[in-house]
Structure formats: C-alpha cells, structure tokens
Amino acid sequence: MEIYLEFEKWLDNLLENNEMPEEAIAFCFNFYDEEDESYGIQLIASDEFDAEDGGEWACSEVWSSEEDIFYIDHSDEQDADYERGLEFMGGLIEEYLENGKYKDILLEAKAVAMGFVDGDLEILCSEEEE
Known about the structure:
Helix content is 30%, strand content 28%. By secondary structure, it is α+β, with helices and mostly antiparallel strands. It is globular, with a radius of gyration of 14 Å.
C-alpha cells in the first residue's frame, strides 16, 4: 500500500520534529475536500476533549500542522464520495495507530478523532474505551 507509506512518512515527520504543547490532550485529523479532486489531511492538537460536544473541542487548537497537509488524489475514482473518502483516510490513520513509529504520542492522548472539517467527527480511540 504505497499511499500508506507516504502517509506514514508525513505523520512520522510531524510527530518526530514537532514537540507537542503540554496542554495538548487530544488529536484530530481534519479532512478537506480540495478543488483539484484531492483530499487534504491536517493534524491538530487540542487542549480540550468532550466526546459529547459534537467535535467542538477540536476547535480549541494548541498545535496544528498548518500548511503541512497530506494530499490524496481521488480523481481516478469515478464514484469517489464523502463516505468512501472518509473510510479510506480512516484506514490510513488506524493502520498508523496500530503500527506507526510514533503511535504512542497519539495513543497517550485522551482521544484521536477524524472528520471533514465541516462535518461530524469520528472518535477512533479514546481513554474511555480502554
């Protein structure tokens, strides 16, 4: 899975070369549907987490990958849609949470979530599940 190796390299670089603020307690992978038929993935850290607030906690950023965004081209998929894109990107993140070099940085947080920036968040893991 070549795309996973590219994603892993991007995420390794972010987590290895950026010290997370002490107040960072949760992470969210923000997805963007780009105009050029690609999805963009940005990582943010938040100083809040509330599983019941519909994802508003992710608006309280204390760190962001900012313009260092990972892009996934979906132009070759005739039936590319929101749900399939979410499922595909979620698979990349879940693989990293299982096998990634710096997965512990993410897993030690109260939660790791993902979602399109203008939609609902899906909690991939949280301390409440343990």
